[in-house]
């Protein structure tokens, strides 16, 4: 056993020589507004890190996504199972062996993977993590409306050059949890603009879109839907039951969530998580509803990555998911964005529809060195999801025609050159997003709009 440990240690030393590289050189590391440092983390403190292992056959996956989504394709609607996806993208045996030996030599423990084997989450001490990832220096931070505590590194990390073909990035070092998409609505910038309908209840939404039990929620057992909750945001069964007693009297509905995937905490109910569940189960009434809970309770976790990993670990799951989550696109590294897009492709190949909130900042205009720029939200800017924005009634006291809500974001991207144009024959909303990226580039706001006071689901 001692000889084995020595050999593994020698292997790690060879890998950790002078030849190193930065997997995420363009990752923004500035402290987000509202966050403060509490100082260096204790070297013996433990944290979890997520290693995104290099996948195989990503180009083939992209081709299959287009084929199953294109009505003119013979493969239209012939979706892959999770096992099919795993067989396609699973990292090579060399990648799996190399990364596992590297982590074992560094003292990583309690490592767990997913069915597709392309993520590996391990526990290390701060001391071990800083030795494993030269340049990293872990600090405690607190911030956000709920004073969330995280451990992050304000400095870039390096990996041995020998790992370049095997690791896309390491999660849990730089990206801070985004704040809730529920924001204080600013005053309308145009005189006379009305941005809020008084009393947009489930019955108002159902009447506006002519939702009946024959159209939505017939009660068939093969219908299901899901939403995700992050960052200690929880719904409560008692709140859901009370909401349905108040607003669900005139339509058939289910009284409770069918299943919670992940860790459902016992803290106070969150406004965002509650709205997501309550309105999803009202508009999609009488449909079996799942909730994916990724609280990000461990300070090194990235909750959105945890959600993606949950999708890669469930063979049978709902085919429609709504997610109120987003990061500023320019705050993320290209390696992270590309990998998340691959994860979204994996979902699309399985026939999953992912609906993402477009955000409440409009085009996200901001000034850099005196120049005004757009600031899109990701993953709403991804071509593999359907971006959902917000509308409001022209007449705030009547159920009338809708107008685009001026705070609603759009499904555009400043990284449009990274997305190859999808054929015009595709009818998916996400494909239309990609076509618009290529043809009209940075100046078109495009969303699939739904009725809501903001752009929350």
Automatic annotation (TrEMBL):
<protein>
    <submittedName>
        <fullName>Tripeptidyl peptidase 1</fullName>
    </submittedName>
</protein>
<keyword id="KW-0378">Hydrolase</keyword>
<dbReference type="InterPro" id="IPR015366">
    <property type="entry name" value="S53_propep"/>
</dbReference>
<dbReference type="InterPro" id="IPR050819">
    <property type="entry name" value="Tripeptidyl-peptidase_I"/>
</dbReference>
<dbReference type="GO" id="GO:0007417">
    <property type="term" value="P:central nervous system development"/>
</dbReference>
<dbReference type="GO" id="GO:0046872">
    <property type="term" value="F:metal ion binding"/>
</dbReference>
<keyword id="KW-0732">Signal</keyword>
<dbReference type="GO" id="GO:0004252">
    <property type="term" value="F:serine-type endopeptidase activity"/>
</dbReference>
<keyword id="KW-0479">Metal-binding</keyword>
<dbReference type="GO" id="GO:0006508">
    <property type="term" value="P:proteolysis"/>
</dbReference>
<keyword id="KW-0106">Calcium</keyword>
<keyword id="KW-0645">Protease</keyword>
<dbReference type="Pfam" id="PF09286">
    <property type="entry name" value="Pro-kuma_activ"/>
</dbReference>
<keyword id="KW-0720">Serine protease</keyword>
<keyword id="KW-0068">Autocatalytic cleavage</keyword>
<dbReference type="GO" id="GO:0008240">
    <property type="term" value="F:tripeptidyl-peptidase activity"/>
</dbReference>
<keyword id="KW-0865">Zymogen</keyword>
<feature type="signal peptide">
    <location>
        <begin position="1"/>
        <end position="21"/>
    </location>
</feature>
<dbReference type="InterPro" id="IPR036852">
    <property type="entry name" value="Peptidase_S8/S53_dom_sf"/>
</dbReference>
<feature type="domain" description="Peptidase S53">
    <location>
        <begin position="199"/>
        <end position="457"/>
    </location>
</feature>
<dbReference type="InterPro" id="IPR030400">
    <property type="entry name" value="Sedolisin_dom"/>
</dbReference>
